[in-house]
């Protein structure tokens, strides 16, 4: 079920009204579970089997870890969780990729193999909920949290429908206790949630979905287009994927607030970053902190000298690329980001820019503007490979980009620039806020008119094609 679908417009109010009419926490959690399974099963009911298996496995393993003091047995239990979760993820997402790679690798040694690929449907959001439930088991194993005996709250934690298929990826220590406490409706939290939902739909349906045909036209015909058109194509994709993904996160966080549930912030105006390090602190925050805590730090983190730190950074970015998909384009995307990140490690500047750009000013300094443009330019280059179908397409696209070929159809793309310009202006003015459009307006009626205008703008200029969110494929 898509957020931007008519079925969800009916689904959400019904769940909301029933939820707040139920008398107990357990009853509300049961409703959340049922609603989440309906929401998830809307694509294909067969997908429910996987999420139920993953949930029950980690719930049971968590309880077994509670009463187990033997280090070896605790490790075996953790390995069981890893085997179940990563086994399911690996089979459905990577089986054909590894088979094809193995066959191609053997051909290099003149060995012909007849391994067959399978017709596998990738379950929506499997990478997201797998990491979410896996973090629970790891934290219980590390004794950072205590396992829950409440099956209903745990199932609600794993399957909570707003963030189920594209995050944010929540830790049990943040989300699970919220399903165990007595819930009371918060008007203030609900209002802030509605603002986030509105802004999320603006980014998704007005910006991302309207940029989509321009991006498709450029990337499908890059061999015949000039450099200026290719530059606009990758700029448009950079904003399309940002508005698409962060729009989903805003809607998810906003919907959760309607149920008095607080989810973690997943994006923090990343295109106003002054360095690659700052960008990755502001982009897909829940995934990047997951890799930091469960991969980068166990590898040694920032200890052991710069060579080991560089090694750890490369591993994290390559794994992050594979997490996004079973394609060499994602691996190369990860490698490129690692290469762009490494200079800050060598220079010891990766922890710079922890504040907001132009903190006390409306206008950024010349130096900050240059830093933001150069950072965006490097990130945009990596997006070429993220968007391309094959590594060869990505390389050819990048090569043509710097050939300075003349552009014949530039005007047809320039008409999409106002979408980018409008987004940049709104986000710049709201970059200090939780939500870019959440401005303090003392007059009640002026505030209502302000948000009504934004809502009308969304209605008038939104694309109603019910386009799926890009990150559903991951």
Describe it:
This protein has 474 residues and is an all-alpha fold. It folds into 2 domains: 6-183, no CATH class; 188-274 and 353-473, no CATH class. The chain is 67% helix and 0% strand. It has 18 helices and no strands. Helix 3 packs parallel to helix 5 (126-141). It is globular and about 70 Å long.
In short:
This protein is mainly α and 474 residues long. It contains 18 helices and no strands. It has two domains: 6-183, no CATH class; 188-274 and 353-473, no CATH class.
Task: Outline the secondary-structure elements.
Elements lengths: L5 H16 L3 H17 L5 H20 L4 H37 L18 H16 L9 H9 L12 H9 L6 H34 L6 H32 L17 H7 L2 H12 L9 H19 L3 H20 L18 H22 L3 H11 L8 H5 L2 H13 L14 H18 L13
Main features:
474 residues, mainly alpha, 2 domains, 18 helices, 0% strand, globular
Envelope shape: globular
Low-confidence stretches: none
Tell me the number of structural domains.
2
Strand content: under 5%
Helix content: 55-70%
Number of strands: 0
SS-derived structural category: mainly alpha
The description of the largest β-sheet is: none
Supply Rg. Answer: 23 Å
Separation of the first and last Cα atoms: 16 Å
Number of contiguous helices: 18
């Amino acid at each position: 079920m898509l957020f931007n679908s008519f079925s969800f417009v009916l689904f959400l109010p019904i769940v909301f009204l029933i939820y707040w009419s139920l008398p107990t926490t357990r009853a509300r959690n049961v409703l959340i579970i049922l609603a989440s399974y309906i929401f998830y099963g809307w694509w294909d009911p067969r997908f429910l089997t996987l999420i139920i298996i993953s949930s029950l496995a980690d719930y049971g393993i968590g309880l077994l870890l509670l009463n187990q003091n033997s280090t070896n047995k605790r490790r075996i239990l953790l390995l069981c969780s890893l085997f179940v979760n990563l086994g399911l993820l690996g089979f459905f997402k990577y089986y054909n990729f590894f088979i094809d790679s193995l066959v191609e690798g053997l051909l290099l040694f003149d060995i012909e193999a007849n391994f067959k690929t399978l017709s596998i449907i990738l379950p929506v959001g499997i990478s997201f909920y797998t990491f979410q439930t896996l973090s629970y088991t790891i934290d219980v194993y590390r004794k950072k949290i205590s396992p829950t005996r409440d099956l209903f709250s745990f199932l609600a934690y794993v399957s909570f429908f707003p963030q189920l298929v594209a995050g944010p990826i929540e830790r049990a220590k943040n989300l699970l206790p919220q399903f165990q406490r007595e819930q009371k409706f918060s008007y203030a939290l609900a209002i802030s949630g509605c603002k986030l939902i509105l802004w999320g739909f603006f980014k998704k349906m007005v910006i991302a979905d309207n940029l989509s045909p321009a991006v498709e036209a450029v990337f499908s015909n890059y061999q015949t287009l000039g450099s200026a058109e290719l530059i606009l194509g990758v700029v448009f994709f950079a904003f399309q994927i940002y508005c698409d993904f962060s729009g989903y996160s805003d809607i998810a966080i906003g919907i959760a607030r309607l149920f008095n549930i607080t989810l973690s912030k997943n994006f923090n105006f990343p295109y106003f970053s002054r360095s690659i390090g700052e960008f990755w602190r502001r982009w897909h925050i829940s995934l990047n902190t997951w890799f930091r805590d469960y991969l980068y730090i166990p590898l040694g983190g920032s200890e052991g000298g710069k060579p080991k730190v560089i090694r750890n950074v490369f591993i994290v970015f390559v794994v992050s690329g594979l997490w996004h998909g079973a394609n060499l384009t994602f691996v190369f995307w990860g490698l490129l980001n690692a290469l762009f990140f490494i200079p800050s490690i060598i220079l010891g500047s990766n922890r710079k820019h922890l504040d907001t750009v132009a903190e006390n000013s409306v206008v950024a300094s010349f130096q900050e503007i240059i830093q933001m443009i150069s950072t965006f330019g490097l990130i945009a280059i990596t997006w070429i490979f993220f968007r391309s179908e094959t590594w060869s397409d990505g390389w050819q696209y990048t090569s043509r980009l710097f050939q300075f070929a003349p552009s014949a159809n530039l005007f047809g793309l320039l008409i999409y620039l106002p979408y980018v310009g409008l987004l940049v202006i709104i986000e710049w003015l709201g970059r200090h806020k939780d939500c870019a459009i959440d401005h303090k307006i003392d007059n009640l009626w002026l505030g209502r008119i302000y948000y009504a205008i934004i809502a009308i703008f969304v209605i008038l200029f939104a694309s109603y094609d019910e386009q799926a969110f890009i990150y559903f494929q991951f």
